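Predict the 3D structure for this chain.
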Amino acid sequence: YQAAEDYLNKALDLDLLADNLAGEAATWYLHGTTAIQQTDFERAARRFQQSLNLSRRLERSDWVAYALDMLGFLNLNLGNFANSIECFDEALALFEAIEDWRGMAKAMGGSEWARLHLGEGEVRSFAKVGEESVQIFKAIGERDEAMGRLWILSHIHLFWKHDTAEARHCVDRAVQLFPQPLVSADQQRILGYSGLIAVLEKNFVRARRELLAALTFFYDAGDWVGCGEIISGLAALLAAGQDIAADQPRPPATCQLEAVRWFSMIRANSRAYAWRYVRDWVDENLTRLSSTLSGEAYATAEAEGEALNVEATIASLHEAIAA
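Done. Predicted structure below.
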């Protein structure tokens, strides 16, 4: 990421020297996407705001719309739901004006999701808009966007409706859109999410297979944020009293204390916790475990987890899996 930042900073310097407003707007946009990859959402928001301001000066409504869409997404993850709705709704109006179907589908879904978090929306309304978005993305050949929207729908059914069956239906539809072999990080995240649902279905064999496959992918790619996301799924397996190693399982209570350590590690030390769906999952599980384990044991495991190094813990787990 540092090399990308260096090149983008050089590009900005050249744009400023040439008084190239269009170049500046484009470079700030790319700068924002780099910050998102590092889950630095506040920095990303500042950069997309720069791109938005320049795009408005240039009167480029398409650029304005895409910058607003990204700011809507970032405000959603930062918990600024009212601002998120404003950004998505303005972006939607602009996308409609230029007949950008892909942008319309993204902005519609984003606005409804922010309204859910703000308490102004209904799950039924979001599900309807989400399905419409899926059909639009499929119709225009945007398979990855359709997969992503199905993933979000699955998340809503799981965390807002507590409907595991409907969550499974959505994620299985997303998996059916996968190319073979799986090549992108988003596809692996969906695979890991499928494993998480399998934990709730008590299909522990499937859960281990899918979660460990996704973890191996992210580890080999050096993607520690992705690893952190999958570790939160493996911690759910432990929270269910199931060990990662099926052939030499530890007692359920021991597994649950390990789950507290891993969830606490993700919350305290992993950039994956910046993603709202990871945060929802980690917090919900820690709340449940705090009520089922003794207070002293829970507090000790929590403190131990907060002291863990994410990369070292994942590397040790990966070595154990390989062995």
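Residues 86 and 305 are 38 Å apart (CA to CA).
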